[in-house]
Fold this sequence. Notes:
The complex is a heterotrimer.
Chain A: E1 11-16, H1 20-29, E2 38-43, H2 51-59, E3 64-69, H3 80-97, E4 105-109, H4 115-132
Parallel strand pairs in A: 1-2, 1-3, 3-4
Helix pairs in contact in A: 1-4
Chain B: H1 7-16, E1 18-22, H2 26-36, E2 37-45, E3 48-54, E4 79-87, E5 92-96, E6 103-109, H3 111-124, H4 131-138, E7 140-145, E8 171-175, E9 179-183, H5 187-192, E10 199-200, H6 203-219, H7 236-241, H8 247-251, H9 260-264, E11 271-277, E12 281-288, H10 309-328, H11 338-342, H12 349-358
Parallel strand pairs in B: 2-6, 6-7, 7-8
Antiparallel strand pairs in B: 1-9, 1-10, 2-3, 4-5, 4-12, 8-9, 11-12
Chain C: H1 7-23, E1 29-35, E2 42-47, E3 77-81, H2 83-94, E4 103-107, H3 116-123, E5 130-133, E6 137-141, E7 146-150, H4 157-160, E8 172-173, H5 187-193, H6 197-208, H7 216-220, H8 245-258, H9 268-272, H10 280-294
Amino acid sequence: MMESDTWEPKIVAFLCNWCSYAGADLAGTSRIQYPSNIRVVRVPCSGRIDPLFILASLQKGADGVLVSGCHPGDCHYLTGNYSARRKFAVLKSLLQYIGLEEGRVQFSWVSAAEGTRFAKVVEQVTARIKALGKSKKLVKEIPGG
Amino acid sequence: MTSMTSMTSMTSAIRANTRLLRKKRMESFLEALLQDGLVFAPVRKGEMLLFERIESARDAVLGQRNTKNSPKSALFPQTERLFAYRHHKEGLAIEAASTGDKERVLFGVHPCDARAHLLLDRVFGGSTEDPYYAEKRRKAIAISIACTHPDPSCFCLALGGGPCSQEGSDLLLLDLGDSYLVEAPSERGRLLLEDKSFEDADEESFDKAELIKRTAESSMQPAAPLWEKATDEGMEKPLDALFDDPLWNDLTESCLSCGICTYLCPTCHCFDISDEAGAVTGERIRTWDSCQFPLFTRQASGHNPRPSAKERFRQRIMHKFSHLPKNVNMTGCVGCGRCVTECPVNLDFREVLLALSKNEAT
Amino acid sequence: MSSVSSMSQLTREIRESARKLLRDGQVQVVIGFERGSLPLRSRPCFVRREEDIDRLVWDGCCETNLARYLPKRKEKAAIVAKGCDSRAIVELIKENQVHRDQIVIIGVPCNGMIDGLLIEAKMGRGSIVEDEGSAEKLILKRTNSEEILDRTDFLHEHCKACTHPDPVLYDVLVGQPSAEAAKDTFSDVEAFGARDEEGRWAYLVHEVGKCIRCYACRNACPLCYCPECFVDASQPRWVGKSTELSDTMVFHLIRAFHLAGRCVACGACERACPMGVDIRKLNRKLQKDVKDLFNHEAGMSLEEASPLADFRVDDPEQPMVDP
């Protein structure tokens, strides 16, 4: 486990309770294999995601962040994911602009019925972040006295 | 105050502690200091002059206007680790931070900033010594450069200082053109003067120095007192009496409650302590804090005894000109002028004091 | 972009309006500018009595965004507003931080504010003892000499690129409207975006590294009026109090994000910053994105909702993971 070629990224996945989390659940109960790099954080709705969650994750050493919600039109709270869509668009653009590697922060729509799709999303995201390597740019350090 | 036996013996005493440093020797002198310890000096960063650690003598920029930030960060850094900790199976291991035993030279300091350290010494010293400050201070040497061309916004004279004041310095350099006249007001400074970089000063240098000093002092804006009816007793009593004066409301209305004045001030010293905790390891750090931030006095209940800029600004004035003189027998301001020039809304505390003093009940 | 009226004419007109408003009791306070205590500085002033009206001035140093003093104000106020200030007022009205009928806006067409640092670089610090910020010429006096400069050479960068010099909302308009300003092409954003990834990151690290967390940028901003700013929150604590780089980055990134679609790019943040941090780098990017993505420009309409407080069912889909 000490060699760098066996390094596995740690990815924080914010999944909305009603769709994406249920979709992940379905992948599990269907015994669909997907990379175990994600650490799931369940939220009520993708619209709950504050950009601070994403940046805090990167600060604490997450190599990548996935945010997944219901497909537009299917939000359990009707319009939460529409707000999320706008916020993600703006945040993603800003992070890319400042030179954060493209692919570290990703978004997806996965419904409760899409177990297979969820697995594929995780595969893609993990592969991308593994290729990017360990995240260094926003990791928090404290300078000594 | 030492008594003088005669003018001649005093003069020769001064001259004994005064030598000359040719400018062409400055770089090697600085390089030698860099060998022995940490050196902090004014550096140019873009359009700005900042007081920072240098690694090469060539980075030091001397004899310019004062740096944007003050040298206090060399003794009292904005972020400082107090200790680190780690959870083990056996318990908790704590590792105290240490500054090491390297000497720290504050080079190219302006006399106002050197005086400021004397105030910090009193606050961080005494019966409850701050070990983090004290450790650095004990190993610190201040090599100051007198101000031959004070800024119009400087008012050190009004606060008992001066462009050529020796207070707080171990060596004071006065620019004579191609050399510096170097005075050593402290024991540490006198030891430094023995270095081979220095040579004896001639009569001409002394005469030149006197002229430069007089010109520098007289070129400063007339040292208008900060309080209209200046008394020998200082401003404490009249300020205390004016605490509830409604004039404070008008005078402070534009204040943004940011931290510029406090963070750039060479005497301000408030700090906060917080823990940066991980799962297993962590650190306790202290960071600068500002009495101008609303959060400074907000209590857990939500009540804030200083709810607006007026209370906070007033507090800063009271602290510097009333509380500190009472508590440590020294005013908390050296007249460097940074709070005046850097305030985004040009809230000039000198004007505030003068306006209040005019309001003083007879 | 030049205004036909001279600075002294504008000063006269502002004082006239202010005097009338105070005298008639239409307002209890006039928020404007007065001469500062240093050369090339004018500063906010709050006039409540007629005898203080003559403190009010208008010149090339009136750079504070006075809209910052409107939220939570209980009294009726007149406010002197240049183009950018008036757009901030529009946003504040939209967000219910000030009522339209609580303020009387004295609009002033602006031909740009002087960057004191540029003057300092040219003339040397501390040498100026007096200035006259007139419409076209800048007269600077040293102790023994005088220099007349073309003010357009010494404007803030963001003033040079200003696309809305005239107030968009006002009750009284002094002076003459400016000539039509150029459209914003966001060429600065595109130029930066075209740089390589590491170059962009290095630039940001360099700029953010200068920040001393004094929060002057936030406090000078009229749209930063939250009773508790996220950076000060302790439960949970999002951002530490030190100048650690990633914390300071998060502060600037999230503050910019919170201002997306609301920031009117007045530049007050940059002008307030003592360390010369290029704060607007982020705000400009968000300004462009909000225009491209949602066809919105802050401060131009009292009706249009702020883009991040709004949505459309048919908003464009963004690049997503879509296997």
